[in-house]
């Protein structure tokens, strides 16, 4: 990739011109609400400018309190939330968006995503996101967990091409063909679960790379993401880890090591496959 990776405030530009910070904080599955608030506040005060949440995480209010407790103005924070499966459809999506804004006590989002491609419904959901985008209620819109055929189907009738596709991404699940498709359509690729829900720390190949670069395994994997041009949002509640996860800007993986990490791909998922995802949790 020819995108510059400079520091914690660095961004990748979306196809509508919006600058999206390439390193952020994920907030999935916290231990409790105070953990979310504290981690968001600390990350922002340390220098992070990108926070990712979702309606199904049930922590939008806690994220808001973390932002308010920080020393960072709202307009400097790139904030993402997502519409859940039970809220698909044009009208229901618009209502879900209003609920998210009410939880966050904000009047806009930086990025709003379709969380999963619910079959037969995601096109109407996308139409609602297009409406919110046209109204200026959200600065960018995108999807999560859309495979190539789902993106092709969505784009066929879309007025606005998704700006982002947030996918499970790590050395065991690269999906290079999907990355190539997104790049072709200027859809920014983003990683969720970049550390394989902790399983990366069990991989001996990564231990060797960590020793080579005098870094920890998480730093190797997160640097790999950035050099692939993939925005990444590792989740952590521990201050030391939040700091360590941002210590990525004083080294660079060689081309051969990037190729080595690409070759680790096993099509291994820690989360559901978008083609047979059947969670029916209702908010």
UniProtKB/TrEMBL annotation:
UniProt-listed Pfam families? Aldo_ket_red
Presence of the UniProt keyword RNA-binding in the record: no
Residues covered by the NADP-dependent oxidoreductase domain: 23-265
- Which InterPro entries does this one have? AKR, Aldo/ket_reductase_CS, NAD(P)_OxRdtase_dom_sf, NADP_OxRdtase_dom
Q: Keywords assigned by UniProt?
A: NADP, Oxidoreductase
Q: Where are the transmembrane segments?
A: none
Please name the SUPFAM superfamilies in this protein's record: NAD(P)-linked oxidoreductase
Spell out the family assignment given in the record's similarity comment: Belongs to the aldo/keto reductase family.
Q: What is this protein called?
A: Aldo/keto reductase
């Amino acid at each position: 990739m020819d995108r510059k990776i400079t520091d914690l405030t660095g961004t990748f530009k979306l196809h509508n011109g919006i600058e999206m910070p390439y390193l952020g904080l994920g907030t999935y599955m916290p231990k409790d609400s105070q953990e979310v608030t504290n981690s968001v506040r600390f990350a922002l005060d340390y220098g992070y400018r990108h926070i990712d949440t979702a309606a199904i995480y049930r922590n939008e209010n806690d994220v808001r309190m973390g932002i308010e407790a920080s020393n960072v103005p709202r307009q400097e924070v790139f904030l993402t939330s997502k519409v859940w499966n039970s809220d698909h459809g044009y009208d229901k999506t618009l209502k879900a968006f209003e609920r998210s804004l009410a939880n966050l006590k904000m009047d806009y989002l930086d990025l709003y995503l379709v969380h999963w491609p619910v079959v037969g419904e995601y096109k109407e959901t996308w139409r609602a996101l297009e409406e919110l985008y046209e109204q200026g209620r959200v600065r960018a819109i995108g999807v999560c967990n859309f495979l190539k055929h789902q993106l092709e189907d969505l784009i066929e009738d879309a007025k606005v091409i998704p700006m982002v596709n947030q996918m499970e991404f790590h050395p065991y699940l690269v999906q290079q063909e999907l990355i190539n498709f997104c790049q072709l359509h200027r859809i920014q690729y983003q990683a969720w679960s970049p550390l394989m829900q902790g399983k990366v720390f069990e991989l001996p190949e990564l231990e060797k790379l960590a020793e080579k670069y005098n870094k920890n395994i998480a730093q190797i994997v997160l640097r790999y993401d950035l050099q692939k041009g993939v925005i990444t949002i590792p989740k952590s509640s521990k201050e030391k880890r939040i700091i360590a996860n941002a210590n990525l800007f004083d080294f660079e993986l060689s081309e051969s090591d990037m190729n080595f990490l690409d070759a680790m791909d096993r099509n291994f998922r820690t989360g559901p496959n978008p083609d047979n995802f059947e969670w029916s949790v209702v908010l």
